[in-house]
From TrEMBL:
Keywords: Flavoprotein, FMN. It comes from Kroppenstedtia pulmonis. PANTHER family: FLAVIN REDUCTASE LIKE DOMAIN-CONTAINING PROTEIN, FLAVOPROTEIN OXYGENASE. Belongs to the flavoredoxin family. It comes from the Bacteria. This is Flavin reductase family protein. Residues 19-176 form the Flavin reductase like domain.
Amino acid sequence: MKIDPAALAWKDAYKWMIGSILPRPIAFVSTMDQQGRANLAPFSFFTGICAEPFLVCFAPMRRGTDGAKKDTLANIEATGEFVINVVGEKIAEPMNDCATEYEPEVDEFEEAGLNKLPSERIRPPRVAESDVHLECRLHELLHFGDQPGSGSLVIGEVLLIHAKDTLIHDGKIDTNQLNPIGRMAGPAYTRAIADTFLMERKKKSSRKRG
């Protein structure tokens, strides 16, 4: 089967995207508007970019109804600051509650029953129930269209990492204790540690080629 994305309606193209790019880690992004109101929303188009400088990115799509910017994107454009809170299974349900499209004045922390922790280098609060937080300053913002199905790429420089003390062993995060979850297609999620396996990367061969 061959599929030409240009021939698809955006909702159909989106289904092909989320059905093939998986599992996807979840960026639980907290922001604050210029009036000081907090916002919290999950995004599963999320990954790291590089370690020097320490850059991460996530891609908020436009609203499917009218192509308007989501509150998270509008807040980052206005303030240049955000926190990525890592999602472990223990906060899966409140994270999902925050996926609801509330009005800008609604505080999703309160709606989902989550607590705030103050950040140290930026204004937006962190999610107390999350075990890892990345305080970020906007590095670059790219827009790709302004219609339903369009999106943006938010690139952030990580200014400070917070991690629960008990997660760290020999300078590394204990993945089993973090117990992260990933997004699949539709309403499906996956446990990252449910069925893992190891493969060591092969070392470069010293054998000369003829």
